[in-house]
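ENTRY TYPE: protein
CONTENTS: sequence, structure tokens:
***
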Amino acid sequence: MNGISRRAFLRIAGLGALAGAFRPKFAFAINPSEFEIKGLINPHGLCAVDENSIAVAEAGSYSIKIFKIAPVELILSIGRAGSREGELNYPKGVSLDSNGNFVVCDTNNGRVCVFDRNGRFLKQFGSLGGAAGNLFSPHAARVYKNKLYVINTRGHWVTVFDYVTTEAVAVFGELGDDSDKPAQQGYKFRMPLDLWVDDEGIFVVDSKHSRIVILDHDGNLKKIVKLSASQPTNIVRTPELSAITDFSGKKIIFVDHAFSNFHEKELGFRPWGIAALKDNIWVSDLEGGRVIKID
């Protein structure tokens, strides 16, 4: 990668820490006969395909599964075990680009693969390795305005690719354990697991630090939000709120876009992935091998 190195990480002085003091908890029930996709093997990341279908990164079957809902029906399976073109090795993340193509984090192969709506392989980004232009256990990737932003989980940074040329163009962050104090320079990640990119910026789930790190699209720090979470894993943003899964805490954290009002919903299982379809949230139960709808 031309001109990119680990020393090129962006550093911005001054951190803003924001945490909600009031975090009520609400328990709720699930009707599995109506709102459940069962029989999955290690389902991880999710994304809404449209209002009536959802994509699941089924890591244990080395594939991406697309299901129609109400009633549940498998309509497409993408990938098979391997490392060649069109093959996958424990994929953990899936999203869509602006053309409706599937953007897949081929986690153990250290790359991001793109498939069209029919499951045909189109192109790939990155390769396995620890250098700034490589990927080491990528868990999530999202396209925004001709840039592909990838959570390089075991590299502990965000790698940015040109979505047209597939060339790496920037790296945001580095491994470390900085504080949340405003005087602290820069920002550091430890095992980031997911990100969301929209007009407001880049929202990184910094899992080991139990926080959301918010960047602008050039990687400059905007805000750090501490979470009351044991192991935050995935995030989804809707026009009204953000929702974050807490895997070890067995709950979902809901928060307004100002990150000032928090609400928690306790679950009877450990949620990993999360997606929004219509007015509902769907979460993946990794250990239970299912994806569940929550009103």
